[in-house]
Write a structure and sequence with these properties.
The complex is a heterodimer of chains A (about 180) and B (about 400). By secondary structure, chain A is mainly alpha-helical. In chain A, about 70% of the residues lie in helices and about 0% in strands. Chain A has helices at about 5-35, 40-55, 60, 65-85, 90-95, 110-115, 120-130, 135-145, 150-165. In chain A, helix 7 crosses helix 9 (about 150-165). Helix content of chain B is about 15%, strand content about 35%. Chain B is built from four helices and 30 strands. In chain B, the strands form seven sheets. A six-stranded antiparallel beta sheet of chain B has the order 1-2-3-30-29-28. Chain B has a four-stranded antiparallel beta sheet with strand order 4-5-6-7, with no helix packed on it. The longest helix of chain B has about 35 residues, at about 25-60. The chains are: A mainly alpha (about 180), B alpha+beta (about 400). At the A-B interface, helix 1, helix 2, helix 4, helix 5 and helix 9 of A face helix 1 and helix 2 of B.
Amino acid sequence: MVESVGESDRSVAARLPFDRFFAAEYRRVVGLTTVLCGRPAVAEELAQDAFMAAFRHWDRISRYDDPAAWVRRVAVNLTTSALRRRTREARALFRTSRRRPSPELEPADPSFWAAVRALPARQAQCVALYYLEDRPPGDIASLLGIAEPTVRVHLHRGRTALAARLGEDLDEEER
Amino acid sequence: MTLDERARAAARATRGRMLAIEAPEPATVMRRHHRRRRLAVAAAATVVILAAAVPVAMRGSTTTKVVAGGSKSPLGSTTIAGWTRVSKQLAGLPADASFRAMSADGRTIMLAGETGIWRSDDGFHWTTGRAPEPDRPQRVTAIGQHGDVALAVGGMVPTVWRSDDRGRTWRAVARAHDLFGSPAPQMGRPFVDGLRWADGYWIGSGGASDGHAGVWISRDGTEWRQVLGPNNAGSIDIFAIGDGTLVGYWTTVRWTTRDPAVWGPPTTVSAPDRMYPQSITGDGRFAIAGNFVTNPPTPLLRSDDSGMHWVIDPGLLGAYPDARASTIARAAGLRVAAGTSGTPNHVDGWVSADGHPWTELPPGLRGGPGGVLSLIGEVGGRIVIVGTAPELDRYYTVDPSALAGTTTS
Protein backbone atom coordinates (compact mmCIF):
# COMPACT_ATOMS: atom_id res chain seq x y z
CA MET A 1 0.00 0.00 0.00
CA VAL A 2 1.52 3.30 -1.02
CA GLU A 3 0.58 6.29 1.03
CA SER A 4 -0.04 9.52 -0.78
CA VAL A 5 2.02 12.54 0.14
CA GLY A 6 -0.04 14.83 2.32
CA GLU A 7 -0.07 18.59 1.90
CA SER A 8 1.54 19.03 5.28
CA ASP A 9 4.52 16.99 4.15
CA ARG A 10 4.90 19.09 1.05
CA SER A 11 4.56 22.30 2.97
CA VAL A 12 7.32 21.35 5.36
CA ALA A 13 9.64 20.69 2.46
CA ALA A 14 8.70 23.79 0.54
CA ARG A 15 7.78 26.34 3.19
CA LEU A 16 10.89 28.52 3.14
CA PRO A 17 11.38 28.87 -0.59
CA PHE A 18 7.66 29.41 -1.13
CA ASP A 19 7.61 32.13 1.53
CA ARG A 20 10.44 33.95 -0.18
CA PHE A 21 8.81 33.55 -3.56
CA PHE A 22 5.49 34.82 -2.19
CA ALA A 23 7.08 37.83 -0.52
CA ALA A 24 8.98 38.77 -3.66
CA GLU A 25 6.17 38.40 -6.16
CA TYR A 26 2.89 38.98 -4.33
CA ARG A 27 2.61 42.73 -4.84
CA ARG A 28 3.47 42.61 -8.51
CA VAL A 29 0.96 39.85 -9.22
CA VAL A 30 -1.73 41.76 -7.34
CA GLY A 31 -0.88 44.78 -9.48
CA LEU A 32 -1.29 42.73 -12.62
CA THR A 33 -4.65 41.24 -11.63
CA THR A 34 -5.82 44.64 -10.44
CA VAL A 35 -5.28 46.39 -13.75
CA LEU A 36 -6.76 43.44 -15.64
CA CYS A 37 -9.73 42.91 -13.35
CA GLY A 38 -10.61 46.41 -12.25
CA ARG A 39 -12.00 45.36 -8.89
CA PRO A 40 -9.22 45.55 -6.33
CA ALA A 41 -10.74 43.17 -3.77
CA VAL A 42 -11.46 40.54 -6.38
CA ALA A 43 -8.05 41.08 -7.96
CA GLU A 44 -6.29 40.45 -4.68
CA GLU A 45 -8.21 37.22 -4.23
CA LEU A 46 -7.47 36.08 -7.76
CA ALA A 47 -3.79 36.70 -7.13
CA GLN A 48 -4.00 34.77 -3.89
CA ASP A 49 -5.71 31.88 -5.69
CA ALA A 50 -2.85 31.85 -8.18
CA PHE A 51 -0.32 31.67 -5.35
CA MET A 52 -2.28 28.90 -3.68
CA ALA A 53 -2.16 26.96 -6.96
CA ALA A 54 1.60 27.47 -6.94
CA PHE A 55 1.81 26.36 -3.32
CA ARG A 56 -0.10 23.16 -3.98
CA HIS A 57 2.43 22.16 -6.63
CA TRP A 58 5.42 23.96 -5.18
CA ASP A 59 7.62 20.90 -5.14
CA ARG A 60 7.34 20.87 -8.93
CA ILE A 61 6.94 24.55 -9.73
CA SER A 62 9.89 25.60 -7.61
CA ARG A 63 12.07 23.66 -10.03
CA TYR A 64 10.85 25.60 -13.04
CA ASP A 65 13.18 28.11 -14.63
CA ASP A 66 10.74 30.92 -13.92
CA PRO A 67 8.11 30.18 -11.25
CA ALA A 68 7.14 33.86 -11.31
CA ALA A 69 6.06 33.54 -14.92
CA TRP A 70 4.01 30.45 -14.03
CA VAL A 71 2.11 32.20 -11.26
CA ARG A 72 1.46 35.20 -13.51
CA ARG A 73 0.10 32.94 -16.21
CA VAL A 74 -2.25 31.31 -13.72
CA ALA A 75 -3.28 34.71 -12.37
CA VAL A 76 -3.95 36.04 -15.87
CA ASN A 77 -5.98 32.94 -16.73
CA LEU A 78 -7.98 33.14 -13.52
CA THR A 79 -8.71 36.80 -14.17
CA THR A 80 -9.75 36.15 -17.74
CA SER A 81 -11.98 33.29 -16.64
CA ALA A 82 -13.61 35.38 -13.95
CA LEU A 83 -14.28 38.25 -16.33
CA ARG A 84 -15.15 36.43 -19.51
CA ARG A 85 -17.15 33.45 -18.42
CA ARG A 86 -18.83 34.91 -15.37
CA THR A 87 -19.39 31.41 -14.13
CA ARG A 88 -21.50 30.69 -11.15
CA GLU A 89 -18.40 30.12 -9.13
CA ALA A 90 -16.95 33.43 -10.29
CA ARG A 91 -20.13 35.28 -9.46
CA ALA A 92 -20.14 33.67 -6.08
CA LEU A 93 -16.53 34.70 -5.67
CA PHE A 94 -17.45 38.27 -6.56
CA ARG A 95 -20.32 38.19 -4.09
CA THR A 96 -18.25 36.77 -1.29
CA SER A 97 -15.48 39.35 -1.81
CA ARG A 98 -16.65 41.79 0.81
CA ARG A 99 -13.35 42.49 2.45
CA ARG A 100 -12.37 46.09 1.93
CA PRO A 101 -9.27 46.35 -0.22
CA SER A 102 -6.26 48.39 0.71
CA PRO A 103 -6.58 51.93 -0.67
CA GLU A 104 -3.19 51.49 -2.30
CA LEU A 105 -4.73 48.81 -4.49
CA GLU A 106 -6.46 51.41 -6.63
CA PRO A 107 -4.29 51.71 -9.74
CA ALA A 108 -3.04 55.10 -10.85
CA ASP A 109 -4.75 56.68 -13.88
CA PRO A 110 -7.84 54.48 -13.64
CA SER A 111 -9.24 55.65 -16.97
CA PHE A 112 -6.16 54.34 -18.75
CA TRP A 113 -6.51 50.90 -17.16
CA ALA A 114 -10.26 50.90 -17.80
CA ALA A 115 -9.47 51.40 -21.47
CA VAL A 116 -7.00 48.51 -21.30
CA ARG A 117 -9.66 46.27 -19.80
CA ALA A 118 -12.03 47.20 -22.61
CA LEU A 119 -9.63 45.64 -25.12
CA PRO A 120 -10.02 42.00 -26.15
CA ALA A 121 -8.59 39.80 -23.41
CA ARG A 122 -5.31 38.83 -25.11
CA GLN A 123 -4.61 42.41 -26.14
CA ALA A 124 -5.27 43.59 -22.59
CA GLN A 125 -2.95 40.95 -21.16
CA CYS A 126 -0.16 41.83 -23.58
CA VAL A 127 -0.53 45.56 -22.96
CA ALA A 128 -0.63 45.11 -19.17
CA LEU A 129 2.44 42.90 -19.13
CA TYR A 130 4.27 45.20 -21.53
CA TYR A 131 3.68 48.40 -19.60
CA LEU A 132 3.01 47.42 -15.99
CA GLU A 133 5.67 44.73 -15.83
CA ASP A 134 7.93 46.29 -18.42
CA ARG A 135 8.37 42.93 -20.12
CA PRO A 136 9.64 42.59 -23.69
CA PRO A 137 7.44 40.78 -26.22
CA GLY A 138 9.58 37.65 -26.02
CA ASP A 139 8.97 37.38 -22.28
CA ILE A 140 5.25 37.99 -22.74
CA ALA A 141 5.08 35.30 -25.42
CA SER A 142 6.76 32.80 -23.16
CA LEU A 143 4.58 33.73 -20.20
CA LEU A 144 1.29 33.53 -22.09
CA GLY A 145 2.31 30.51 -24.15
CA ILE A 146 1.85 32.23 -27.51
CA ALA A 147 4.22 33.16 -30.33
CA GLU A 148 6.25 36.36 -30.11
CA PRO A 149 4.94 37.68 -33.45
CA THR A 150 1.43 37.18 -32.08
CA VAL A 151 2.32 39.24 -29.03
CA ARG A 152 3.59 42.01 -31.30
CA VAL A 153 0.33 41.96 -33.24
CA HIS A 154 -1.70 42.13 -30.01
CA LEU A 155 0.44 44.99 -28.76
CA HIS A 156 0.12 46.92 -31.99
CA ARG A 157 -3.64 46.47 -32.18
CA GLY A 158 -4.06 47.16 -28.48
CA ARG A 159 -2.08 50.36 -28.56
CA THR A 160 -3.83 51.54 -31.70
CA ALA A 161 -7.22 50.96 -30.06
CA LEU A 162 -6.09 52.63 -26.82
CA ALA A 163 -4.84 55.71 -28.65
CA ALA A 164 -8.17 56.07 -30.43
CA ARG A 165 -10.17 55.51 -27.27
CA LEU A 166 -8.12 57.83 -25.07
CA GLY A 167 -7.50 60.48 -27.70
CA GLU A 168 -3.74 60.13 -27.38
CA ASP A 169 -1.18 60.20 -30.16
CA LEU A 170 0.66 57.05 -31.12
CA ASP A 171 4.42 57.15 -31.23
CA GLU A 172 5.87 57.47 -34.72
CA GLU A 173 6.87 53.84 -35.03
CA GLU A 174 3.37 52.70 -34.13
CA ARG A 175 1.67 54.54 -36.94
CA MET B 1 1.63 63.40 -24.30
CA THR B 2 1.74 60.27 -26.43
CA LEU B 3 0.01 57.05 -25.57
CA ASP B 4 3.34 55.47 -24.72
CA GLU B 5 4.21 58.28 -22.29
CA ARG B 6 0.83 58.10 -20.60
CA ALA B 7 0.98 54.29 -20.36
CA ARG B 8 4.45 54.30 -18.85
CA ALA B 9 3.48 57.01 -16.36
CA ALA B 10 0.37 55.06 -15.34
CA ALA B 11 2.39 51.87 -15.01
CA ARG B 12 5.12 53.55 -12.98
CA ALA B 13 2.65 55.11 -10.56
CA THR B 14 0.65 51.88 -10.26
CA ARG B 15 3.79 49.88 -9.56
CA GLY B 16 4.69 52.37 -6.86
CA ARG B 17 1.30 52.00 -5.22
CA MET B 18 1.43 48.22 -5.36
CA LEU B 19 4.85 48.07 -3.80
CA ALA B 20 3.48 50.06 -0.88
CA ILE B 21 0.82 47.51 0.02
CA GLU B 22 1.45 45.09 2.80
CA ALA B 23 1.74 41.50 1.67
CA PRO B 24 -0.13 39.14 3.99
CA GLU B 25 1.47 36.09 5.50
CA PRO B 26 1.12 33.02 3.28
CA ALA B 27 -0.66 31.20 6.11
CA THR B 28 -3.25 33.99 6.25
CA VAL B 29 -3.74 33.76 2.52
CA MET B 30 -4.25 30.02 2.79
CA ARG B 31 -6.92 30.43 5.44
CA ARG B 32 -8.70 33.11 3.41
CA HIS B 33 -8.41 31.02 0.27
CA HIS B 34 -9.95 27.94 1.82
CA ARG B 35 -12.72 29.90 3.50
CA ARG B 36 -13.47 31.71 0.24
CA ARG B 37 -13.59 28.49 -1.75
CA ARG B 38 -16.03 26.98 0.71
CA LEU B 39 -18.26 30.02 0.52
CA ALA B 40 -18.00 30.25 -3.24
CA VAL B 41 -18.81 26.60 -3.76
CA ALA B 42 -21.75 26.76 -1.38
CA ALA B 43 -23.08 29.89 -3.09
CA ALA B 44 -22.55 28.38 -6.52
CA ALA B 45 -24.32 25.23 -5.47
CA THR B 46 -27.30 27.26 -4.35
CA VAL B 47 -27.39 29.09 -7.66
CA VAL B 48 -27.10 25.81 -9.55
CA ILE B 49 -30.02 24.33 -7.67
CA LEU B 50 -32.19 27.36 -8.33
CA ALA B 51 -31.12 27.66 -11.96
CA ALA B 52 -31.76 24.02 -12.66
CA ALA B 53 -34.88 23.61 -10.59
CA VAL B 54 -37.06 25.86 -12.73
CA PRO B 55 -36.56 24.17 -16.09
CA VAL B 56 -36.61 20.77 -14.43
CA ALA B 57 -39.91 21.52 -12.79
CA MET B 58 -41.25 22.77 -16.12
CA ARG B 59 -40.06 19.75 -18.09
CA GLY B 60 -40.64 17.18 -15.43
CA SER B 61 -38.43 14.73 -17.35
CA THR B 62 -35.04 15.14 -15.75
CA THR B 63 -33.79 15.48 -12.24
CA THR B 64 -31.16 17.80 -10.85
CA LYS B 65 -29.12 17.00 -7.85
CA VAL B 66 -26.17 18.82 -6.35
CA VAL B 67 -24.05 16.24 -4.66
CA ALA B 68 -22.91 17.44 -1.28
CA GLY B 69 -19.50 16.89 0.23
CA GLY B 70 -19.04 13.51 1.84
CA SER B 71 -20.98 11.75 -0.87
CA LYS B 72 -19.33 10.05 -3.77
CA SER B 73 -18.78 12.98 -6.12
CA PRO B 74 -16.70 16.00 -5.10
CA LEU B 75 -18.23 19.07 -3.53
CA GLY B 76 -19.69 21.35 -6.18
CA SER B 77 -20.45 18.62 -8.69
CA THR B 78 -23.78 18.94 -10.44
CA THR B 79 -25.87 16.01 -11.61
CA ILE B 80 -28.72 16.12 -14.11
CA ALA B 81 -30.39 13.00 -15.46
CA GLY B 82 -27.43 10.72 -14.80
CA TRP B 83 -24.79 13.15 -16.14
CA THR B 84 -22.47 14.79 -13.63
CA ARG B 85 -20.25 17.81 -14.23
CA VAL B 86 -17.16 17.71 -12.06
CA SER B 87 -14.63 20.47 -11.43
CA LYS B 88 -11.15 19.19 -12.31
CA GLN B 89 -9.63 21.10 -9.43
CA LEU B 90 -12.12 19.90 -6.82
CA ALA B 91 -11.66 16.32 -7.99
CA GLY B 92 -7.90 16.50 -7.39
CA LEU B 93 -6.77 17.23 -10.95
CA PRO B 94 -4.83 20.41 -11.75
CA ALA B 95 -7.35 22.89 -13.14
CA ASP B 96 -5.03 23.67 -16.04
CA ALA B 97 -3.91 20.11 -16.70
CA SER B 98 -3.49 19.22 -20.35
CA PHE B 99 -4.32 15.57 -21.06
CA ARG B 100 -3.24 13.47 -24.00
CA ALA B 101 -4.23 9.92 -23.11
CA MET B 102 -6.62 7.86 -21.00
CA SER B 103 -6.64 4.24 -19.96
CA ALA B 104 -9.40 2.42 -18.08
CA ASP B 105 -9.97 -1.21 -17.18
CA GLY B 106 -13.17 -0.77 -15.19
CA ARG B 107 -11.40 -0.83 -11.81
CA THR B 108 -8.93 2.01 -12.32
CA ILE B 109 -8.90 4.91 -14.73
CA MET B 110 -5.76 6.88 -15.58
CA LEU B 111 -5.26 10.23 -17.28
CA ALA B 112 -1.90 11.27 -18.64
CA GLY B 113 -0.55 14.38 -20.23
CA GLU B 114 1.97 17.19 -20.24
CA THR B 115 2.85 17.20 -16.58
CA GLY B 116 2.07 13.79 -15.18
CA ILE B 117 -0.28 10.86 -14.69
CA TRP B 118 -3.35 10.83 -12.46
CA ARG B 119 -5.42 7.84 -11.33
CA SER B 120 -8.85 7.25 -9.86
CA ASP B 121 -10.86 4.26 -8.69
CA ASP B 122 -14.23 6.00 -8.90
CA GLY B 123 -13.91 8.70 -11.57
CA PHE B 124 -14.48 11.42 -8.98
CA HIS B 125 -11.36 11.50 -6.84
CA TRP B 126 -7.92 11.62 -8.47
CA THR B 127 -4.40 11.32 -7.12
CA THR B 128 -1.11 11.98 -8.83
CA GLY B 129 1.04 9.04 -9.76
CA ARG B 130 4.30 9.48 -7.91
CA ALA B 131 7.78 8.97 -9.31
CA PRO B 132 11.30 9.92 -8.32
CA GLU B 133 12.14 13.25 -9.95
CA PRO B 134 14.39 11.96 -12.74
CA ASP B 135 11.66 9.50 -13.66
CA ARG B 136 8.70 11.88 -13.44
CA PRO B 137 6.31 11.17 -16.33
CA GLN B 138 5.81 14.14 -18.59
CA ARG B 139 4.52 14.73 -22.10
CA VAL B 140 2.85 11.33 -21.96
CA THR B 141 1.20 10.46 -25.26
CA ALA B 142 -0.09 6.93 -24.59
CA ILE B 143 -1.03 4.87 -21.56
CA GLY B 144 -2.29 1.31 -21.13
CA GLN B 145 -3.13 -1.16 -18.36
CA HIS B 146 -3.06 -4.90 -17.80
CA GLY B 147 -4.01 -6.00 -14.29
CA ASP B 148 -1.90 -4.11 -11.77
CA VAL B 149 0.70 -3.19 -14.38
CA ALA B 150 0.47 -0.03 -16.44
CA LEU B 151 2.81 1.44 -19.05
CA ALA B 152 3.04 4.98 -20.34
CA VAL B 153 4.99 6.36 -23.30
CA GLY B 154 6.12 9.91 -23.93
CA GLY B 155 8.82 12.35 -22.93
CA MET B 156 11.15 14.75 -24.74
CA VAL B 157 13.45 11.78 -25.21
CA PRO B 158 11.26 8.75 -25.95
CA THR B 159 10.61 7.13 -22.58
CA VAL B 160 8.54 4.25 -21.22
CA TRP B 161 7.33 4.44 -17.62
CA ARG B 162 6.00 1.44 -15.74
CA SER B 163 3.75 1.10 -12.70
CA ASP B 164 3.17 -2.17 -10.87
CA ASP B 165 0.56 -0.83 -8.44
CA ARG B 166 -2.24 0.46 -10.67
CA GLY B 167 -0.66 3.81 -11.35
CA ARG B 168 0.19 4.86 -7.80
CA THR B 169 3.94 4.91 -8.40
CA TRP B 170 5.93 5.05 -11.61
CA ARG B 171 9.50 4.49 -12.73
CA ALA B 172 11.17 4.90 -16.10
CA VAL B 173 12.12 1.52 -17.56
CA ALA B 174 13.41 2.62 -20.96
CA ARG B 175 14.65 5.89 -22.38
CA ALA B 176 16.49 6.34 -25.65
CA HIS B 177 16.33 8.53 -28.72
CA ASP B 178 15.94 5.42 -30.88
CA LEU B 179 13.62 3.48 -28.56
CA PHE B 180 10.99 3.27 -31.33
CA GLY B 181 13.39 3.73 -34.22
CA SER B 182 15.79 6.44 -35.23
CA PRO B 183 14.43 9.86 -36.05
CA ALA B 184 14.43 10.54 -39.77
CA PRO B 185 15.66 13.91 -41.05
CA GLN B 186 12.54 14.63 -43.07
CA MET B 187 9.82 12.86 -41.10
CA GLY B 188 10.79 13.58 -37.50
CA ARG B 189 10.87 11.01 -34.76
CA PRO B 190 8.41 8.14 -34.30
CA PHE B 191 5.33 8.80 -32.19
CA VAL B 192 3.33 6.36 -30.08
CA ASP B 193 -0.21 7.48 -29.28
CA GLY B 194 -1.85 4.14 -28.53
CA LEU B 195 -0.88 1.48 -26.01
CA ARG B 196 -2.65 -1.77 -25.17
CA TRP B 197 -1.99 -5.28 -23.87
CA ALA B 198 -2.89 -8.37 -25.88
CA ASP B 199 -1.74 -11.95 -26.03
CA GLY B 200 1.33 -11.47 -23.83
CA TYR B 201 2.55 -8.28 -25.50
CA TRP B 202 2.40 -4.60 -24.88
CA ILE B 203 1.48 -3.09 -28.24
CA GLY B 204 2.31 0.50 -29.09
CA SER B 205 0.74 2.11 -32.14
CA GLY B 206 1.31 5.36 -33.98
CA GLY B 207 3.61 6.60 -36.70
CA ALA B 208 7.13 5.53 -37.53
CA SER B 209 10.03 7.77 -38.48
CA ASP B 210 9.72 6.79 -42.13
CA GLY B 211 6.35 8.55 -42.19
CA HIS B 212 4.36 5.33 -42.28
CA ALA B 213 2.14 3.69 -39.67
CA GLY B 214 4.03 1.93 -36.90
CA VAL B 215 3.26 -0.90 -34.48
CA TRP B 216 5.78 -1.87 -31.82
CA ILE B 217 5.61 -4.80 -29.38
CA SER B 218 7.33 -5.46 -26.06
CA ARG B 219 7.06 -8.10 -23.37
CA ASP B 220 7.79 -5.78 -20.44
CA GLY B 221 8.18 -2.27 -21.78
CA THR B 222 11.99 -2.20 -21.80
CA GLU B 223 12.69 -3.28 -25.38
CA TRP B 224 10.49 -2.65 -28.39
CA ARG B 225 10.37 -4.22 -31.83
CA GLN B 226 8.61 -2.71 -34.82
CA VAL B 227 6.34 -5.31 -36.40
CA LEU B 228 4.16 -3.60 -39.00
CA GLY B 229 5.54 -4.23 -42.45
CA PRO B 230 6.07 -1.69 -45.23
CA ASN B 231 2.96 0.37 -45.81
CA ASN B 232 1.87 3.76 -47.03
CA ALA B 233 -0.42 4.76 -44.17
CA GLY B 234 0.41 7.73 -41.95
CA SER B 235 -0.43 6.27 -38.54
CA ILE B 236 -2.46 3.50 -36.99
CA ASP B 237 -5.03 3.01 -34.24
CA ILE B 238 -5.91 -0.46 -32.96
CA PHE B 239 -9.02 -2.04 -31.52
CA ALA B 240 -9.78 -5.64 -30.59
CA ILE B 241 -12.95 -7.48 -31.56
CA GLY B 242 -14.58 -10.20 -29.50
CA ASP B 243 -12.74 -13.21 -30.94
CA GLY B 244 -9.34 -11.75 -30.03
CA THR B 245 -8.56 -10.39 -33.48
CA LEU B 246 -6.68 -7.11 -33.44
CA VAL B 247 -7.76 -4.61 -36.05
CA GLY B 248 -5.52 -1.68 -37.01
CA TYR B 249 -6.84 1.14 -39.13
CA TRP B 250 -5.93 4.43 -40.73
CA THR B 251 -8.50 6.16 -42.93
CA THR B 252 -9.63 3.44 -45.35
CA VAL B 253 -6.63 1.16 -44.76
CA ARG B 254 -6.95 -1.76 -42.37
CA TRP B 255 -4.80 -4.58 -41.00
CA THR B 256 -5.89 -7.58 -38.92
CA THR B 257 -4.01 -10.19 -36.92
CA ARG B 258 -4.46 -12.81 -34.22
CA ASP B 259 -0.75 -12.63 -33.36
CA PRO B 260 0.52 -9.18 -32.31
CA ALA B 261 3.98 -10.06 -33.64
CA VAL B 262 2.82 -10.77 -37.18
CA TRP B 263 0.67 -8.35 -39.12
CA GLY B 264 -0.60 -9.03 -42.61
CA PRO B 265 -0.67 -6.63 -45.56
CA PRO B 266 -3.16 -3.77 -45.49
CA THR B 267 -6.57 -4.09 -47.08
CA THR B 268 -9.00 -1.35 -48.05
CA VAL B 269 -12.33 -0.93 -46.30
CA SER B 270 -15.44 0.37 -48.01
CA ALA B 271 -17.04 3.55 -46.73
CA PRO B 272 -19.55 6.05 -48.12
CA ASP B 273 -18.25 8.52 -50.68
CA ARG B 274 -15.07 10.26 -49.52
CA MET B 275 -15.60 9.27 -45.90
CA TYR B 276 -13.46 7.12 -43.65
CA PRO B 277 -13.75 5.86 -40.06
CA GLN B 278 -11.67 8.20 -37.91
CA SER B 279 -12.66 6.85 -34.48
CA ILE B 280 -14.08 3.35 -34.00
CA THR B 281 -15.81 1.72 -31.03
CA GLY B 282 -13.95 -1.19 -29.45
CA ASP B 283 -16.35 -3.69 -30.98
CA GLY B 284 -15.92 -2.26 -34.47
CA ARG B 285 -19.63 -1.57 -34.83
CA PHE B 286 -19.76 2.25 -34.91
CA ALA B 287 -17.37 4.93 -36.09
CA ILE B 288 -17.25 8.68 -36.34
CA ALA B 289 -16.75 9.53 -39.98
CA GLY B 290 -13.89 11.62 -41.17
CA ASN B 291 -14.34 13.31 -44.50
CA PHE B 292 -11.63 13.96 -47.05
CA VAL B 293 -13.28 17.03 -48.53
CA THR B 294 -15.68 18.75 -46.16
CA ASN B 295 -15.76 19.99 -42.63
CA PRO B 296 -17.81 18.43 -39.86
CA PRO B 297 -20.46 17.65 -38.87
CA THR B 298 -19.86 14.30 -40.43
CA PRO B 299 -22.15 11.38 -39.73
CA LEU B 300 -21.95 8.28 -37.67
CA LEU B 301 -20.97 5.14 -39.55
CA ARG B 302 -22.14 1.62 -38.77
CA SER B 303 -20.58 -1.70 -39.67
CA ASP B 304 -22.00 -5.22 -39.34
CA ASP B 305 -18.71 -6.98 -40.11
CA SER B 306 -16.30 -5.50 -37.54
CA GLY B 307 -15.25 -2.54 -39.63
CA MET B 308 -14.77 -3.93 -43.14
CA HIS B 309 -17.80 -2.27 -44.69
CA TRP B 310 -19.29 0.97 -43.37
CA VAL B 311 -22.63 2.64 -44.03
CA ILE B 312 -24.07 5.91 -42.76
CA ASP B 313 -26.13 5.60 -39.58
CA PRO B 314 -28.58 8.52 -39.35
CA GLY B 315 -29.17 8.19 -35.59
CA LEU B 316 -26.88 10.82 -34.11
CA LEU B 317 -27.12 13.60 -36.69
CA GLY B 318 -30.83 12.94 -37.14
CA ALA B 319 -31.42 13.85 -33.52
CA TYR B 320 -28.61 16.40 -33.11
CA PRO B 321 -27.84 17.99 -36.51
CA ASP B 322 -25.02 20.22 -35.26
CA ALA B 323 -23.20 17.44 -33.38
CA ARG B 324 -19.49 17.40 -34.15
CA ALA B 325 -18.36 14.22 -32.48
CA SER B 326 -14.67 13.48 -32.80
CA THR B 327 -14.37 10.34 -30.64
CA ILE B 328 -16.53 7.31 -30.08
CA ALA B 329 -15.96 4.41 -27.69
CA ARG B 330 -17.74 1.59 -25.93
CA ALA B 331 -17.97 2.06 -22.17
CA ALA B 332 -20.19 0.54 -19.50
CA GLY B 333 -22.02 -1.38 -22.19
CA LEU B 334 -23.01 1.79 -24.02
CA ARG B 335 -21.78 3.61 -27.10
CA VAL B 336 -20.39 6.98 -26.10
CA ALA B 337 -19.57 9.78 -28.53
CA ALA B 338 -17.87 13.00 -27.50
CA GLY B 339 -16.88 16.25 -29.10
CA THR B 340 -18.49 19.63 -29.49
CA SER B 341 -21.56 21.24 -31.03
CA GLY B 342 -23.38 24.52 -31.52
CA THR B 343 -22.29 27.99 -32.60
CA PRO B 344 -20.38 29.25 -30.71
CA ASN B 345 -19.37 25.74 -29.90
CA HIS B 346 -19.68 24.10 -26.51
CA VAL B 347 -18.60 20.75 -25.14
CA ASP B 348 -20.96 17.94 -25.90
CA GLY B 349 -21.37 14.20 -25.44
CA TRP B 350 -23.90 11.56 -26.38
CA VAL B 351 -24.63 8.03 -25.17
CA SER B 352 -26.70 5.28 -26.71
CA ALA B 353 -27.32 1.60 -26.18
CA ASP B 354 -27.04 0.70 -29.85
CA GLY B 355 -27.07 3.83 -32.01
CA HIS B 356 -30.68 4.84 -31.52
CA PRO B 357 -31.81 6.78 -29.63
CA TRP B 358 -29.00 8.97 -28.26
CA THR B 359 -29.01 10.93 -25.00
CA GLU B 360 -27.19 14.26 -25.05
CA LEU B 361 -25.23 15.98 -22.32
CA PRO B 362 -27.88 18.15 -20.60
CA PRO B 363 -27.52 21.82 -21.69
CA GLY B 364 -27.47 22.88 -18.05
CA LEU B 365 -24.14 21.16 -17.58
CA ARG B 366 -22.28 22.57 -20.60
CA GLY B 367 -20.70 25.51 -18.83
CA GLY B 368 -19.04 28.34 -20.79
CA PRO B 369 -18.47 28.29 -24.53
CA GLY B 370 -15.55 26.48 -26.10
CA GLY B 371 -14.01 23.11 -25.52
CA VAL B 372 -14.05 19.63 -26.97
CA LEU B 373 -14.49 16.33 -25.12
CA SER B 374 -12.30 13.61 -26.54
CA LEU B 375 -11.22 10.98 -23.98
CA ILE B 376 -13.72 8.31 -22.93
CA GLY B 377 -13.33 5.58 -20.30
CA GLU B 378 -15.17 3.53 -17.71
CA VAL B 379 -14.53 2.99 -14.03
CA GLY B 380 -16.80 1.45 -11.41
CA GLY B 381 -19.61 1.13 -13.93
CA ARG B 382 -19.49 4.88 -14.58
CA ILE B 383 -18.52 6.52 -17.86
CA VAL B 384 -15.89 9.28 -17.66
CA ILE B 385 -15.57 11.85 -20.47
CA VAL B 386 -12.69 14.32 -20.44
CA GLY B 387 -11.36 17.04 -22.75
CA THR B 388 -7.69 17.47 -23.49
CA ALA B 389 -7.37 21.27 -23.36
CA PRO B 390 -5.94 22.94 -20.24
CA GLU B 391 -8.58 25.67 -20.52
CA LEU B 392 -11.41 23.18 -19.88
CA ASP B 393 -11.87 23.32 -16.12
CA ARG B 394 -14.36 20.47 -15.88
CA TYR B 395 -15.07 16.95 -17.01
CA TYR B 396 -18.14 14.73 -17.04
CA THR B 397 -19.32 11.35 -15.80
CA VAL B 398 -22.38 9.37 -16.75
CA ASP B 399 -24.20 6.91 -14.51
CA PRO B 400 -25.79 4.43 -16.97
CA SER B 401 -28.34 3.27 -14.42
CA ALA B 402 -29.68 6.82 -14.06
CA LEU B 403 -30.12 7.15 -17.82
CA ALA B 404 -32.85 4.54 -17.99
CA GLY B 405 -36.04 6.03 -19.28
CA THR B 406 -34.52 9.43 -20.04
CA THR B 407 -33.17 8.83 -23.56
CA THR B 408 -34.51 11.11 -26.25
CA SER B 409 -34.99 10.39 -29.89
